[in-house]
Design goal:
The chain has 403 residues and is an alpha/beta fold. It folds into 2 domains: 309 residues, TIM Barrel; 84 residues, no CATH class. The chain contains 14 helices and 12 strands. The chain has an 8-stranded parallel β-barrel with strand order 1-2-3-4-7-8-9-12, surrounded by 4 helices. It has a 4-stranded antiparallel beta sheet with strand order 5-6-11-10. The longest helix is centred in the middle third of the chain and has 22 residues. The radius of gyration is 21 Å and the shape is globular. One of its GO terms (biological process) is D-glucuronate catabolic process.
């Protein structure tokens, strides 16, 4: 396996040399500065690749091995294959990525909102902070800040009453923070920041789109783009929904084993793969993650490894330490190792420690929410230890001068 690290570009708080410090060898990144729907040009892709892969003397080489993500424009999610111009632009970006030698592209198909959290610095029992999704706080936002039409139908009378009490106890700053966390696009998001009126307008555009229709739109997108991916030798990896359940009355179609099975049956191309995100899939109680790895092993080219812990109301969860949540990370890695051991060196699975607690010096620094250096370094070290214990240590290239 290869150890990946999410890097947000030259302005990110974590530098490429600091990525080397933690033992990662593969960069997971994107051209975040390019507007959603615009083509990633050949020159821009190659410039970022060269920035990552030009190795200073005496340093360990890094490889840009995963693009996360080329955002899929909203029009594709709403009208599927009819969004011809948007799909053609996406293919043009894919072609420039593939020709630059980047073999994996991660993407998601979450409508309107990408990954969603209500708190960015929930204080854990160690004093470190984590991200959290609190169902009642989410309901308060949906019912009394967004004021989504028909939202009341999604909550029981008791849930509406608790959400209203919570909302009435919020001060102006708490409301502002909640709007920022949910509506203004978290780091790495592939959706646009929104005002509350803009949020309502977006939701209105999805009226009448149910899960079957949204899935069909994804299938039409994949039917259009997988031939290009196949010709380039690029693997497309669909990231699960986060959280893995409908939000704001919108369907979500990459939340369960059945969801992925339907997509692989519909588009059997070997380029049609998955990003196996334990943090997203693990939130849902009925998802048996080791069994999912066994079933979809050949489709897994990239894996986000993080853990979550469901709370008293299982719809509420927080991000736990990597080895201290509801997901049996050892069992997941054991299943991934079984598949990885079958592969040629160039086809090995890229893993990355996803998210991480904000701890130690990072508590006083400006950090990218979800992506503090120290918490992710701890997670990667723990995951690396499991791989060694399983007899499948990750690839560890050295500087040319020391080879």
């Amino acid at each position: 396996m290869r150890q990946g690290w999410r890097w947000f570009g030259p302005k990110a708080p974590v530098t490429l040399d600091e990525v080397r410090h933690v033992g990662a060898t593969d960069i997971v990144s994107a051209l975040h500065e390019v507007p959603i729907g615009a083509v990633w040009t050949k020159d821009a892709v190659e410039a970022r690749r060269d920035m990552i892969e030009t190795t200073p003397s005496g340093r360990v080489p890094l490889r840009w091995s995963v693009v996360e993500s080329i955002p899929i424009p909203d029009a594709v999610k709403r009208v599927g294959g009819k969004a011809k111009a948007e799909i053609e632009a996406w293919i043009a970006s894919l072609e420039n990525v593939g020709r630059a030698g980047i073999p994996i592209v991660c993407y998601n198909f979450m409508p309107v909102v990408d990954w969603c959290r209500t708190e960015l610095d929930f204080v854990t029992d160690t004093g470190a902070t984590a991200m959290r999704f609190d169902f009642e706080t989410f309901a308060a936002f949906d019912l009394f800040i967004l004021e989504r039409p028909d939202a009341a139908h999604d909550y029981s009378e008791a849930e509406r009453a608790r959400a209203e009490a919570l909302f009435k106890a919020m001060d102006e700053q708490a409301v502002s923070d909640l709007v920022r966390n949910i509506a203004s696009a978290l780091p790495g998001s592939t959706t646009e920041p929104m005002t509350i009126p803009g949020f309502r307008d977006k939701l209105a555009q999805y009226r009448g789109i149910d899960a079957a229709r949204l899935r069909q739109h994804l299938i039409e997108f994949l039917e259009a783009v997988t031939p290009a991916a196949e010709s380039l030798g690029v693997k497309l990896t669909l990231h699960p929904d986060d959280p893995p359940r409908p939000l704001f009355g919108l369907p979500r179609i990459a939340s369960t084993e059945a969801d992925y099975a339907a997509l692989f049956d519909a588009v059997p191309s070997p380029a049609n793969g998955m990003c196996f995100c334990t943090g997203s899939l693990g939130v849902r109680l009925e998802n048996d993650l080791p069994a999912m790895v066994e079933r979809f092993a050949s489709r897994i080219h990239f894996s986000h490894l993080r853990n979550t812990r469901r709370e008293a109301d299982p719809r509420t969860f927080h991000e736990s330490a990597h080895l201290d949540g509801d997901t049996d990370m050892v069992a997941v890695l054991k299943a991934l190792v079984k598949e990885d051991a079958k592969r040629a060196p160039g086809e090995t699975i890229v893993i990355r420690s996803d998210h991480g607690h904000r701890m130690l010096d990072d508590l006083t620094k400006t950090v990218t929410p979800g992506y503090p250096a120290i918490g992710r370094m701890r997670g990667l070290a723990e995951l690396r230890g499991i791989l060694y214990a399983l007899g499948h240590p990750p690839e560890l290239p050295r500087a040319a001068e020391l080879a």
